[in-house]
Design goal:
67% helix, mainly alpha, single chain
Length: 212
């Protein structure tokens, strides 16, 4: 009986092994139900809870805390995917989509609440729209995949932490109320203290004029 190595040249054996390895890898990448994908889906499912806390319960602190947690856990799904070897095609699409949805809904809701200046919220939303349009454009041009880089993740993380702070501060933190609060005789709600004027002058903190 001829030995297997004599029947099949080494070149053919080397071609067969990579094909099997590549097939196993593709099966792993195309999985849908993975722990990282479950984490990403849970983050998306928490968006209605955030809106409920902010507008139905009107608990800014709880809503801000939830939004901050969702932003701070942005890296967990990607880390789990790499750690567990569960990087999937769905996850590469779902993770950035979740980031865009969380940031877009969060910023829009905080703008409606009045806790962030409109110009700042509009600038952030415009940035997100440009990024989304660029991704769609590259996909339409035939880009096989668009990997998320750490610079973009860091920017999203920073905004997801900063905007909850606006929410905790409340509407009084926005301009022009912030200037009114800081002015002598101003109140935290942006109104003038008794005896003071809306421009922040007068009231208990004003300087008394001395008679000549």
């Amino acid at each position: 009986m001829m030995h297997a190595a004599a029947r099949f040249p080494d070149s053919r054996v080397r071609r067969i092994v990579p094909m099997r390895t590549r097939g196993a890898s593709d099966a792993r990448v195309d999985r849908v139900l993975t722990l990282p994908n479950v984490v990403t889906a849970a983050r998306l499912a928490a968006v209605p809870v955030f809106l409920w806390l902010l507008f139905a319960v009107q608990d800014r602190v709880a809503a801000a805390a939830l939004l901050a947690v969702l932003g701070a856990t942005d890296w967990i799904d990607g880390w789990l995917a790499r750690r567990l070897g569960q990087v999937s095609t769905l996850g590469k699409v779902l993770d950035p989509v979740a980031d865009r949805v969380l940031l877009g809904v969060g910023v829009s809701a905080i703008m409606v609440d009045g806790s962030v200046p409109l110009w700042l919220g509009a600038a952030v939303l415009a940035r997100e729209a440009l990024v989304s349009a660029a991704v769609l454009g590259l996909a339409a041009l035939g880009a096989a995949r668009i990997d998320v880089v750490w610079v973009g993740k860091a920017g999203t993380f920073g905004m997801m932490v900063a905007f909850p702070l606006f929410l905790v501060a409340g509407p009084s933190a926005t301009w022009p109320n912030a200037a009114l609060v800081a002015a002598p005789g101003g109140r935290p709600d942006g109104t003038a203290a008794p005896g003071g004027r809306p421009d922040g002058t007068g009231g208990p903190g004003r300087l008394q004029e001395t008679g000549g």
